[in-house]
User: What shape does this take?
Amino acid sequence: MTTATRPLPPHGTYARANGSPGRRQPCHCEPCTTTRTRRKKAERIDRQRGVPRLIDAAPARARIAELRATTGWDDLAAALGTRPGHLRDIANGTVTHVRRSTHERIMAVQPPATPGLYIDATGTVRRIRALMAAGHAQHTIAALAGSTQYRISLASQGPARVRRMFADKIADTYRELAGTTGTSARARTIAAAAGWPDPLWWEDYGGLDDPKAPETEPQQNQRTEAAYKAGEVRHLASYGLKPDEIAARVGYSTGYVEQLIAREAS
Assistant: This one.
């Protein structure tokens, strides 16, 4: 079995110019020499000015944790031009101080999301459960999401994490179905027995993707606000305003406003 050889850093980078003890010798070509000279000069000036080269890694560690919610180690390392192992060492606290330049790169980087990454499943689970509470069968949800009923069933049971691609598909399906009523009595029965709120409930109280948001009746002031907005919808509709105009005024989606108006008319 052969072990893959890690490629050398490009000429002109500090990693190539400075070398790595026990792994590679410093490079003395002109671009590397220039880079090394500039780095040493910058370090000397910082020492004279009293500017520390190494700073507390805590902010960088917090930023990495934030980025890891959407980006894998390899993609994040590629965006920063460093090794995944170095980022993991910062993230787990093995590295307690980082260079100021490293800190600045970590705080500024905006890497693309990694499609196959596992993310928090809160929003995905709640969307599936809400659609079931609205009468949408698992096989209906699966068909629109390009998934299987088995996978939808597993997700409805509350896993801690799901793949981002699956979460995105469920979010798209939710947007399509949340404003409609399904025909599955079994889905409603399962949801009612478990106490799962429907899309109307989430539209009222919000927090669909927030793990800290309650899934039961909130405090009285939140209920009062929801009732006030529902009254505003009825009031504005009585003056002939269109659902999209009402939605813009009260902060609800157009689909939810249409459901409230239809509910009042029935």
